[in-house]
Write a structure and sequence with these properties.
Blueprint: E1 2-5, H1 15-19, E2 24-26, E3 33-35, H2 45-54, E4 60-63
Antiparallel strand pairs: 1-4, 2-3
The protein binds iron/sulfur cluster.
Iron/sulfur cluster binds near residues 13, 55 and 60.
Length: about 60
């Protein structure tokens, strides 16, 4: 699994970091999504998909 964050679409809502703080953080400067190292863990797929579904900007992509 790989999480791809499309930061050009991110509107800094913070939903991903609230929903899956083990996978996502926000950039201190502009609030845009940052994928944490835990985002490479295959076991994190369900949480990643959940966060992707809640993102208001469709900025999170979960790849196999
Ligand atoms: S939920 Fe989406 S729009 Fe909000 S910070 Fe995360 S990636 Fe950006």
């Amino acid at each position: 699994m790989k999480i791809v964050a499309h930061t050009d679409r991110c509107i800094s809502s913070g939903m991903c970091a609230l929903t899956a703080p083990e996978l996502f953080d926000q950039d201190e400067a502009d609030g845009r999504v940052v994928v944490l190292p835990g985002g490479r863990d295959p076991g994190a797929r369900a949480a990643a998909l959940h966060a992707a579904g809640l993102c208001p900007a469709q900025a999170i992509e979960v790849r196999e």
